Structure formats: structure tokens, C-alpha cells
């Protein structure tokens, strides 16, 4: 029987694709979350190191999205703490967590379908805008300069994600795969230190998945962004992750390198008992 507590075996600085991992940037400690009588998470602890790609996997209802929602302040766990760069945050809302450098994408896209790609990504830039609303509305002085700078940054993201041809297109007219890419762009517009991705490949065809994998690796590599992702596609998880946390019925049953979790009997049992 695999022992989750002894699976944290990634050697310091090790990463499958030759990535150099830094110190712990995000620490999740003894998190428990319940909705009435439903225990979504029980005593979950794990850490994420700077520059790491860390996956959270598990069968349906295992608590993966609840975990991301605790990290980014959507849910307030009844127990435990979450620290970013050693700073513990309790009872912070999503905006405050975002201001600390944590951005996320969503399982069910939350884009403004009638707005263009450019404007959707621009909404992710709002946190960075310093001038006041009146100056922005009048587009004068520092506000005008600032808007130009922000737009340049957004254009850079559009180029990076190779969606130049769609920059003026209303998002609702794009394929699902491209909409997921715009969702990633909006999160990147926040220049996050930690990027939380909730099923970034869900509903994609093989080619779209390959593209998304490449963009996640490029974001990690070129911007040095730490990535925490939930994903059901095991091929993708095993290919791109440095370490994997496995949840089942709200409990952690495995934690380690892809090879570690693949060999963990508890993990194998949890997956054999489901349709995944
Ligand atoms: N807002 C909520 N209210 C009540 N119960 C909830 C809520 N959010 C999650 N749960 C419950 O918590 C448990 C964990 O759900 P969660 O969505 O976190 O799992 P998951 O691993 O992300 O599942 P999936 O892979 O299907 O998305 C489930 O039993 C779910 O029904």
C-alpha cells in the first residue's frame, strides 16, 4: 500500500524537462473544507515550488476544484492555512489573492462572449491599472499613457498565444479550443507568479491539446510562472508535471513525481474504481 506521507521524494532542484525548481512558493497546510455534511477536503497538505508544474488529479468529486477555489480565495476552508512566499493568507477574497500574484482559469469558461479577444484579455489587466476611473473614462493624461502601455502588454500576450488573427473577433464566435486559449491569456494578463489552471484541456481535440501543452510549457519556461493544474488527461499530466498530488474523496492519497504516483497502489485502486 502506497504511503502518501512518504511520497514527497522529488530531489531539490529536480524537474523532468531539466527545469530548475526554486524554493517553496505556495504552501497548503492541513486544509479541510466541508459543505454542510459533505467533506470536500480533509487535512490536505502539499507544497508547490517556484517554477514548478504541479498537477492535482483524482476521480470526479475528489475535491480538485474545491482545492483551487481555496487557493484563490473563492472558498474559505474551515481549517488549515495557505501561504504564498511565506505569507499566510486567511479569509482573503479572490481579488486580494489575485493582487498577491495568483491567477486562474476556469473549468467552465467565464469569458465575456460578446466582447473581442483583445477586450477579454484586457479585463485581466484591470488589477494593474493604477489611474482612477474618472481619468480612465476621460482618457487623459497619465490614464491615456497607461492605457497605451496596458494595450501593448495585451498585444504581446496575443502574439505569444498566436491569436493575432482573432484579436477583434467576439470570443463567442471562436472554437472552444481558442476560447480556452483566450481564458489563459486573460490570466496571463495579470502577470501572475502562480497560475492555477482548472482542466485547461477539457473538451479539446488532440491538436488543441498539443497546442495548449506547448503554451503551458512556454509560459512556465519564458515567464518563469509556477503552474498548478487540474487535468483529467493522464498522458498530459504525466508528460508535463514535475510532481503530482492525488486526491480521492477529499483526501490526499498520493504525492510525488509522475513515476511515484503511477506506482502508488492507492492511486491505481482509486482510478481502477472509476471510469477514468
Ligand atoms: N459549492 C458547493 N456546494 C456543495 N457541495 C460542493 C460544492 N462544491 C463542491 N462540492 C462537493 O464537494 C466535493 C468535491 O467537489 P469538487 O468539485 O471539488 O471535485 P472535483 O475533483 O473537482 O470533481 P470534478 O473532476 O468532477 O470536477 C463533491 O462531493 C461536490 O459535490
TrEMBL record:
<keyword id="KW-0067">ATP-binding</keyword>
<protein>
    <submittedName>
        <fullName>ABC transporter ATP-binding protein</fullName>
    </submittedName>
</protein>
<dbReference type="InterPro" id="IPR032823">
    <property type="entry name" value="BCA_ABC_TP_C"/>
</dbReference>
<keyword id="KW-0547">Nucleotide-binding</keyword>
<feature type="domain" description="ABC transporter">
    <location>
        <begin position="26"/>
        <end position="274"/>
    </location>
</feature>
<dbReference type="InterPro" id="IPR003439">
    <property type="entry name" value="ABC_transporter-like_ATP-bd"/>
</dbReference>
<dbReference type="Pfam" id="PF12399">
    <property type="entry name" value="BCA_ABC_TP_C"/>
</dbReference>
<dbReference type="InterPro" id="IPR003593">
    <property type="entry name" value="AAA+_ATPase"/>
</dbReference>
<dbReference type="InterPro" id="IPR051120">
    <property type="entry name" value="ABC_AA/LPS_Transport"/>
</dbReference>
<dbReference type="Pfam" id="PF00005">
    <property type="entry name" value="ABC_tran"/>
</dbReference>
<keyword id="KW-1003">Cell membrane</keyword>
<dbReference type="InterPro" id="IPR027417">
    <property type="entry name" value="P-loop_NTPase"/>
</dbReference>
<dbReference type="GO" id="GO:0005524">
    <property type="term" value="F:ATP binding"/>
</dbReference>
<keyword id="KW-0472">Membrane</keyword>
<keyword id="KW-0813">Transport</keyword>
